[in-house]
Amino acid sequence: MTTVKKVAWITDSSAYVPEKERTHKDLYIVPMNISFGNKIYKDGIDISPDELYVKMDEMKDIPKTSQPALSDFIDLYTKLKHDYDEAIAVHISGNLSGTYNVSNLAAKLTNFPVEVIDSRILSYPITMMINKGMKLHSNGMEAKEIADILRKEHTKYHNYILVGKLEQLYKGGRINGIQKMIGSLLNIHPILQINNGNVEIYKKSRTKNKAINTILEQFYIEKQKHTIKTVQVLHADAIDEAKSIRDKLVRQYDDIDVLIGPISQTIGVHGGKGSLTMIWKVD
């Protein structure tokens, strides 16, 4: 009889992992870095969301985010080698962060068999991918086969991000000063979309409510064509708006579950306080 190998599951803190899932004994989350000047904080460990957004309001310059250090992954993989046969690591899109490359290099340097996956997405879908992988593994599937399946999952996810503050896009170099000034004067709210691992502008709306309704309209269109079981509404210190979106969804659809949670801080840095994201998977 074939012995089932013991598998560790790894991701980074760009993924939204609900508290009840963080306690899984085989799941390991490597924190990204957030820096204000020379001060570096470990995402989710050294700084809370409330502290982050207060600092962002107070600071003139935008904080910077960076992938975990190579040594963080080397230390983790060296430790895991003693307790696991192999691992599957699912990371934020390689087009948005160098985390995938660092994780891959650490696996090679430690000679630990890790299937390192570029999710080509971010946030909660990464957690959903890991949950699917865990289920496949519990059914006896081997790591390589699981990884091959998970690498194709990104095509099923729709991820829309409503930017909270144009100031953050300007400070981060995503828009220039003239675009920021015009956008602020006209009260323009850009909607971003994750497409094949890249962040793209989907549409621009004149008010935040119109932007929210634009995303809800897109969800309605997709719901007519596909089976959608869950929707994630994540926010950057905008819980009331997230709840309002949830209420609209559950009033209109009685066959979906809606999860509310915080946007990871490394993502909130770029969108700013008040950012919202809606994510769903089509089957």
From TrEMBL:
Keyword Protein biosynthesis: no
Keyword Metal-binding on entry: no
Name of the protein this chain belongs to: Fatty acid-binding protein DegV
Single annotated GO MF: lipid binding
Protein's organism: Bacillus solimangrovi
Keywords noted in UniProt: Lipid-binding
InterPro entries xrefs: DegV (IPR003797), DegV_C (IPR043168), DegV_domain_contain (IPR050270)
